[in-house]
Design brief:
The chain is built from four helices and no strands. It is an all-alpha fold. The two termini are 17 Å apart.
Length: 77
């Protein structure tokens, strides 16, 4: 997911934040996989996880440390 967001939108995503978001959704994913739920529920959950990572997973810019995009003078979105 991180690589896709980087390639498509040129956004840096934090590894720790994305892992935390995925771990939060794993319990619900396991419940969907073990039950006789439809595939659409799993797809909706994966889309929800992906959109949450896209929304909340951006890297923090604390202490004015430059990120890769700042070093290369590429505007981040």
């Amino acid at each position: 997911m991180r690589l896709f967001l980087y390639k498509k939108h040129q956004r840096e995503i934090s590894e720790l934040k994305s892992i935390r978001i995925i771990r939060h959704g794993m319990e619900e994913m396991w419940a969907i996989l073990t039950s006789s739920a439809r595939l659409t529920k799993l797809v909706k959950l994966l889309h929800k996880i992906f959109s949450t990572i896209d929304w909340l997973g951006t890297k923090c810019r604390r202490y004015e440390k430059p990120t890769v995009f700042n070093i290369l003078l590429v505007p981040s979105f």
